[in-house]
Amino acid sequence: MTRIIAGRYGGRRIQVPKGDGTRPTSDRVREAMFSSIQSALGGFDEDLRVLDLFAGSGALGLEAMSRGAGFAQFVESNARAVSVIKQNIRTLGADAAVARMTAEKYPTIDPPGAFGLIFLDPPYALGTSEVTALVASLKMWNTQSEALLVVERSSRDRFTWPDGVDALRDKTYGETTLWYGR
To answer: pLDDT digits over 14-52, tens only?
Structure first.
């Protein structure tokens, strides 16, 4: 289990998929991440739509909703993780949708509108070039040009933003580094 840190669901526990197929973002890293997001976005509001790729338990998208985002779309390929995300959404009563597919396939479908905040927390084993290519495909597809992108990777892997995405900052927390871009 993990918990939602702040907002309307603050302190509530959510399930995490069993096994080593997912790597939940630690509370400390999530708290720092959301502080940076708050600063970059100027706050969360009902108009903010969130895309959580490689969603795992859904903790990142659910944290954004807890803080005021209006909607979250979760994308996860693992059946067990999808089941956990759906349970977490029901438990919290969140307005969200779950797509069971790979993050790479998601930009090829006709999505319901643009997103203002996009999380990418891929498995550390996924190569940097594949993550960069995915960000490039999202940038071309997502019509909200000022979307904030947050990429979480191993501190051992250097991430490079593709052309068309402005790097805002990066911050390392032990084994985890967060990259922020627009």
So the answer is: 999 886 666 778 889 999 999 999 999 999 999 999 999
**One-letter amino acid for residue 83 of the chain:** S
Cα separation, 135 vs 149, whole angstroms: 8
Phi/psi of residue 3, each to 5°?
Answer: -130, 155
Q: Is the pLDDT of residue 112 over 60?
A: no
Q: Is the dihedral of CA 101, 106, 110, 116 positive or negative?
A: positive
End-to-end Cα, the chain, rounded Å? 32
Could you tell me the pLDDT band of residue 138, with boundaries at 50, 70 and 90? Answer: confident
Q: How far is CA 13 from the centre of its chain?
A: 18
Classify residue 109 by its DSSP letter: S
Q: In this structure, what is the dihedral angle of CA atoms 65, 135, 19, 62, given to the nearest 10 degrees?
A: 0
Cβ count near 92 (within 10 Å): 18
Task: Give residue 142's pLDDT band: very low, low, confident or very high (50, 70, 90).
Answer: low
User: What's the gap between Cα 106 and its chain centre?
Assistant: 14
CA distances from 103 to 42, 107, 123, 135 (A): 27, 8, 11, 10
- Cβ count within 10 A of residue 109: 11
Predicted pLDDT of residue 131: 94
